[in-house]
Amino acid sequence: MWLKAWSESRARFLAIALTLSALCAFAVLFEPYFRQHQVPIALRQREGSYTEYIYNLIYSGTAKGVYALLVIFLGLGGLQRERANRTAGFTLALPVSRLRVVGNQIAVGTIELAALALVPAILIPSLSAFSARSYPLSVALHFSVRWFFCGLVIFAASFLLSVVTPGEYTAPVVCYLALVLHTFVAAWHPLAGYRLNLMWIMGEFQTMHWNAAHSLLQPPPLSWPRMSVMAFFALLLLSAAIRVTDKQDF
Amino acid sequence: MMLFYKAWLESRTRFLLGLLVIAGLSTVFVFYNHDVRTVVTDHDVSYGEYIWRGIFKGQLRDIYVILTLLLGWGGLDRERTHGTAGHTLALPVSRWRLIAARGLTGIVETAALAILPASLIPALSPFIHESYPWLLALQFGALWTVGGILIFAIGFLASVLFAGEYSAAIAAIALLFGYSITTDLPGIEHYLVDIHDVMNGSGPHGFTTLAAISITAAATIWLAGYITARRDY
Predict the structure, then answer these.
(1) Which long-range contacts (CB under 8 A, 24 or more apart) does A27-32 make?
(2) B59, closest residue in chain A (CA to CA)
(3) Count of the separate structural domains present in chain A
(4) What range defines the domain where residue A198 resides?
(5) Cβ-Cβ contacts under 8 Å for A58 (sequence gap 6 or more)
(6) Burial of A78 (0-12, 13-18, 19+ CB in 10 A)
(7) Interior CA angle at A180 toward A85 and B8, to 5°?
(8) What DSSP assignment string belongs to A155-207?
(9) Most buried residue, A188, B93, B145, B185, by most Cβ within 10 Å?
């Protein structure tokens, strides 16, 4: 069942990993070129430090948006999709429960999600050293944790939507629109103080600060209660997806 | 006519969802402009500038770009996965006609999504004692339509090139981001128009530029048709 779940999602996972890797490599290896030629995407960082440049381009910029957008596709699973492909009957004929089928998809997806969240943490510090720069691994890992938990919520929402909505493209479209709309809801005055915007949480929006020497842009300590709440919320969505799958008539 | 109906049935959910969201957000942007203004800009701006920053250049344009990309998905590769490609290919029409029907339906839907905020903003603004020029809004509608058709064509081509499940969607998004970054590189701007700047009116948007973008979009759709016509299903 693990191999089945991996075979179904590996093309998506590898494509997303490749896209993220390309973005990270591009940002690090072309950094001198960007600054020297005043490339618009790096204009804001022309005078700033290297850590600020990486933060604005990767952790709070394009790479973050790409990750959030593409994680939606990683979450698409369940048996509804197989019904459209007319393979649901074969899967349901396997001598395993639906819980195991869907559970394996979720488990494999979560591992892939963690691997994707780690891509910048592996590439940015190592490639920075390669180009005679340095980026702290601790900061990179801090963002990986944030990306993982926020990605988990998006993954879970996408998974649930792919279970409850018919049509191949309805789930990703609805999930993308929900991702956009939640930023407006989070900005609504009564909710604004709770900082519910996933994109803000992923990018530590307005919470980054400089070290004493003003050389390193660093995040505040990781808020584990907030991460736990997000994991719990994702778990709720996934439980709902499992329950719906269990009750569905194929 | 039935081919257009088929293409419409395949894409209508995505289109109608997009229509609903663009209409809803345009209305929110106008009626809740005092609340949303703080999300869109960090300083006090005029109503006209706020509309440009939030809608024609900002968040709503980003949503439109992704929605038009989504409209490009589908085609015979998708049908092959579902086991219906044989039925479609058995129809007494050429593959070129299938592609043309899907392409034209997508173009009309892309244009409809572009025109929607351009008509809603000037129409709704008087309700909150503001005004937005119809001519300016419709100019943005036209720019969105031309840019949107090229983005639709990218999604359309990706749906033909990448056969795996959702691979076309991921590839199309990666291609779009790659293109957006590439157009910002020095020297490239002489050879490659930044479609995002064209759409928000800050880039070149003369007749020649718009014609070049339209021809590129048509060529991209033609390439998708050429590949489809020669592929073995």
Answers:
(1) A27/A54, A27/A57, A27/A58, A27/A63, A27/A124, A28/A54, A28/A123, A28/A124, A28/A127, A28/A128, A28/A130, A28/A131, A28/A133, A29/A127, A29/A131, A31/A131, A31/A133, A32/A131
(2) A180
(3) 1
(4) 2-247
(5) A23, A24, A27, A64, A120, A124
(6) buried
(7) 45
(8) HHHHHHHHHH--STTHHHHHHHHHHHHHHHHHHSHHHHTT---HHHHHHTTTT
(9) B145
Tens digits of residue pLDDT in B133-188: 999 999 999 999 999 999 999 999 998 888 766 888 888 888 888 888 888 777 77
Counted domains in chain B: 1
pLDDT in tens, chain A (250 residues): 888 888 888 888 999 999 999 999 988 988 877 776 666 655 455 456 888 888 888 998 889 999 999 999 998 887 777 777 778 788 888 888 888 888 999 999 999 999 999 999 999 999 999 888 889 999 999 999 999 999 999 999 999 999 998 777 888 889 998 998 888 888 777 887 778 889 888 988 888 888 887 778 888 888 899 999 999 999 999 999 999 988 887 7
Domain boundaries, position B52: 2-230
* Sequence-distant (≥ 6) Cβ neighbours of residue A79 within 8 angstroms: A88, A91, A92, A98, A101, A102, A163, A245, A248, A250
Residues B47-73 pLDDT 10s = 888 899 889 988 899 999 999 998 888
Q: Which residues 15-34 in chain A show a CB within 8 A of chain B?
A: 15-16, 18-19, 22-23, 26
> Minimal Cα distance from B70: which residue of A?
A173
User: Which positions ≥6 away from A81 have C-beta within 8 Å?
Assistant: A162, A168, B165
Q: List the 198-217 stretch of A: residues with Cβ below 8 A of B.
A: none
Question: Among residues B206, B201, B224, which one has the least CA distance to residue B76?
Answer: B224
CB B149 within 8 A of CB B109: no
Contact A15 B171 (CB under 8 A): yes
* Residue carrying the six token digits 């938990």: A149
With CA atoms as reference, report the closest residue to B39 among A180, A223, A176, A201: A180
